[in-house]
Amino acid sequence: MLAGLAMRLHQLISDIEGYSLHSGKKRIISYLLQEISGDMLPCGDHTFTIKLAINKNTIASRLSMTQEHFSRILHELAELGLIAVQGKEIHIPDIRMLQQYED
Fold first, then answer.
1. Is residue 55 one of the residues assigned to a domain?
2. Which of 28, 46, 51, 67 has its CA 20 to 30 A from that of 87?
3. How does pLDDT run across 71-97, given as a tens digit for each residue?
4. 7 and 22 Cβ atoms separated by less than 8 Å
């Protein structure tokens, strides 16, 4: 039980550091990469699809941004070809490009 609490505390501290030190794009990219679990099967060689389990407003709030800012950044990432958004699904055509993205 103590180990579980320590892991949760460590995750919360990491989240707070991320909110204060990283740009909105970096926070969203980190969130998307965290959503890809190790057992998730890719759709192609390096292609993944994430189905958002919660609404975008809740995700934006968790990432310490407004829903409008969150949507704007998703649109910018889509324009860069890093993701494609279709409702609650986010398609990542090449996870390596998303991981290597620099603001």
1. yes
2. 46
3. 999 999 999 999 999 999 999 999 999
4. no
